[in-house]
Amino acid sequence: MFNDDTLKKKQLLDEQLMAAMAAMPAEAVPPPPPPATNWSGISLKHSYGPDDIKDMDFQDIGIPGNYPFTRGNYPFHYQVEPMLMNQGYGFATTEETRQRRQFLQDLGSRSQGGLVTAVMTLDLPTQRGLDPDHPAAAGKVGECGCSFSTLDDFSEYFDGLDITKLFTALLAIDNALPINALFAAYILDRRKENLADMWNLPCNLFHHQQFWDAAGYPPKTALKMSTELIKWHIDNMPLACPGAFDGYNLGESGAPPAMEVAFALAHTIAAVEECQKVGLDPNIVVAKYLGHPHVTQNFFEEVAKLRATRRLWAKTFAQRFGCTSPDALRHKIVIAQTAGTELTAQEIHNNIIRTTIMAMAGMMADLEGMWVVSYDEAISIPTEEAVKVCVRTYQILQEETDLPHVTDPLGGSYYVEWLTNQMEQEIVKIMNQMDELGGYLKCWESGWIRGQIEAEAAKRFTKIQTGESVKVGVNKYRVEEIAPPAEIYRRPIEIEQKAIERVKKYKENRDHEKVKAALENVKLAAIKVDKEWPSSGGVLMPALVEAARAGATAGEMSKVMQENLGYGYFSG
Amino acid sequence: MKSEQKSSADLVKELLGGSVRAAARLITLVEQNDSKVPEIMRQIYPHSGNAYVIGFTGAPGAGKSTLVGKLAKLLDQKGKKVAIIAVDPSSPFTGGALLGDRIRMMEDVGVKKNVFIRSLGSRGEMGGLSEATYRVANVLDAFGKEYIFVETVGTGQAEVEVTKLADSVVVVLSPGMGDEIQTLKAGTMEIGDIVVLNKADQNGADAIASSLQTALHWAVKHDTWTPTLVKTIALKEEGIEELWEKIELHKDHLVNSGQLRIRREKRIRIEICKLMKDKILRYLNKFTGESPVFEQGIKEISIENKNPCQQSEVLLESFLSYLKQGGQG
Amino acid sequence: METKTKKRVLVTKSDQDAHEVSVRYLTQLLRDKGMEVIFTRYAIIDEVVKTAMEEDVDVIAMSFYSSGLMYDTTRLMELLKEQGLKDDIKVIIGGTISDQEKKELLQMGVDDVFMPGMGTLLDVVECVNC
């Protein structure tokens, strides 16, 4: 990377410094400060020079827009395309959710190609595959998201909107297949539109048991579900992005940055291999993956992590899977999310500073898009006032500052390039460790991954409890007990009763025989997926779409699937 | 916090009347080695002796809890009365415990079911089985439970302990648990009347199943029963019915061959020894703590320089007469 | 031989809520204090009461992040009363709870409420232990 002359000069300067210090009387020399260690466990020096990256191959840095994309996916980026604002939202009622979407749009929130994002959080019963009238849904319908279980719910939210201009993401978690089947049925039958015109981001988060100790399906089945979702969208909805490289939830659960990427990448590799089993071309599958990393206030560690992720992605899929398509090799980090766990309820406005630093890290790593979390998320569902600050954060960074003028402005920094290498090595180290333990799937099934994340979370908690990690206004410089929030958003209670009545009415007014027959087909397809995999790959999702068109609810479809594909288990 | 100070007689009466709460309370008392234990045991004993106890053991991660949950669900559907005792390790340092097995069974034996689940900390007892598990099983027996499942942490000694308590012992294994040969060598299987290979859909399950079959064939047999292998996929509820058939076959075998009586005699022997030991220890503590004779004996060693060995013999004689007088003198 | 009575604590949260990092950490802290902790998740609140009864616990500690707070707690307190357990079991609720909600919770008989920004998990441990 550098010629001998440069390295010699650097060495000389170091020697001069050492000599100067040696010449001073011992008591005048301040003791060297202890080296800092970042969250991923990498020990840092006090400063960096050319000698720290002298052995690097310049190819690994390259230029923006070129393999291995360390410096970003595009030669020109924010100069022409501002960072995308992919914020999620979702309320008790479709009415309120639509209002919120309009509010964001009026503020100038935008996603790619002028599309409007419709990232919708669904309520917890929906995420678990329960209709509102299920006993276990009681008290939780419509809280923290919309209740979606029938075509009527889709009509209520989407009717009248130009759905070809929406970038839709329905956060359905375990219920992803039935919910996307309903979405397809809605597009086909109620809107009479082409599936091929739709931008969709189906929620492919079937690895979530790695960090939440309960899941809808066991790990092996989860990989099949992911494959079904990906295959169906590739075949029917080519604009959709059915792959999720999700580090966010790992980070939120306690995984430090390098571990987050290691587990997310290991999962993606396993998921792509599963797709290969059913005959899909990795060039196409990998291109369908969007990145959803966690971004904390550790500015340099995050920038290095994100650059390392892009490089490792390109290398992994080129070398291990033989991918050649540039679309596959570019890891598109479209929804990097600012860390919710780092926000504090104390002195709540400090969170704006925290999220701004996180968003800046995202820009310095040249990400495509982010989800800047609102400052009040530490205590409640975001208020209008708080989400306005989020939209303004992107706009100020993009339009008031000089940040967007130059792509990858930190590229070539001794420290940033060194740290990018170190993060990459740390990620690879964790992945190798899993290989030694018998492979990723085994580490997942045995709860090893869960255990690693939990141990890290405990470490972090302990550090905050003891004050070793500073949280300003919480464990340091605290001046007063904060007054707890006087009010927290709660959905009007009648929402639940309305949702129950609506789904009951929906179930009454349909062709029962047709629904029964369609659900029977779902059952047969599920059994095939369970017993005849991978030759049965691709049979489940079409059966679900037909069931949705016949009038089946999401809860009914989920139930049939779980009964025949197995329930999840607790790995914690 | 516990406001209730009911007499043990009242609690036993309520237990026999079907009160879940009384059962739970009595379990706490017998498990925490309360001074009321002998009284409680005396009262419930006439009502016990009807339950069939099945021990489940095996290495962590084999899926024991899930399997036990599914089996309990099946029996519940058949109208049987089932209780589960789930034993988890206690911390050797703080005595605290995280009793998490229940979580794996909840889904199957949820609120509508009659299955009673109780989590116990092993409290550092050798083998991991809480020393009071015997008594807990007795309470549940008197409570009218027909089948009592005891699930233990599978760490070596525990597996032997469970055989002393249970009528049938089920050893649970799964593929990919490391070197299966080691498992065979360790003799884990020799204590199993039934060996379950769970997660039988995992890679390599068939190969392990056949090596297990061979090992079972050559295993040391304690009576005329030949241990059998059952393959299950507990998460998908496959093989559960077959496991139950095998357990029933074993039960029939024990009854018909008279082995059940022999097994239970062993259990009674252990329990009686334990009760005697406890009582002697209780008196001994009292004797060493309050008897002037003992105090005098100690002083004679320290002041008069008497031989401690000889002195202990003398004091033992005093203790025995103290014991005969029911802790007087 | 008298054994020291160990405090038994039921720590639980809704099966549907993924926010569980801190509640799991709490279980570790309680265990390290020498308590026996039964950690579960519930689909319906009736399971909590069944568990509390069978396990004969001294304390129920429930965590809420996102939903079901008022509904589930109301039902919990009703069921505890119905089963005559109310006076024997201490109930502690923690999570994203507002001032107004705290008042209502205390009114329905909850023993203590922990809200965002109020103290630390160590205070919760203290509260469970006393």
Keywords:
A: 572 residues; TIM Barrel; four-stranded parallel beta sheet; B: 329 residues; alpha/beta; Rossmann fold; 3 domains; seven-stranded parallel beta sheet; 8 strands; 50% helix; globular
CATH class group of the domain at 71-466 in chain A: Alpha Beta
Helical element count of chain A? 20
Uncertain regions of chain B: pLDDT < 50 for 5+ in a row? Answer: none
Specify Rg of chain B, calculated over alpha carbons.
23 Å
Helices and strands in order:
The complex is a heterotrimer of chains A (572), B (329) and C (130).
Chain A: H1 4-23, E1 84-85, E2 88-89, H2 94-107, E3 116-121, H3 124-128, H4 151-158, E4 166-171, H5 176-190, E5 199-200, H6 219-236, E6 243-246, H7 248-253, H8 257-277, H9 282-287, E7 289-292, E8 294-295, H10 299-319, H11 326-329, E9 336-338, H12 350-364, E10 369-371, H13 384-399, H14 414-436, H15 440-445, H16 448-466, H17 494-508, H18 512-531, H19 540-550, H20 554-565
Parallel strand pairs in A: 1-10, 2-3, 3-4, 4-5, 6-7, 8-9, 9-10
Chain B: H1 8-16, H2 20-31, H3 37-44, E1 52-57, H4 64-77, E2 82-88, E3 97-99, H5 102-105, E4 116-121, H6 133-142, E5 147-151, H7 157-165, E6 168-173, H8 180-185, E7 194-197, H9 205-218, E8 228-231, H10 240-257, H11 259-290, H12 292-302, H13 308-324
Parallel strand pairs in B: 1-5, 1-6, 2-4, 2-5, 6-7, 7-8
Helix pairs in contact in B: 1-2, 2-6, 4-10, 12-13
Chain C: E1 8-14, H1 21-32, E2 36-42, H2 46-55, E3 59-64, H3 69-82, E4 90-95, H4 99-107, E5 112-114, H5 121-129
Parallel strand pairs in C: 1-2, 1-3, 3-4, 4-5
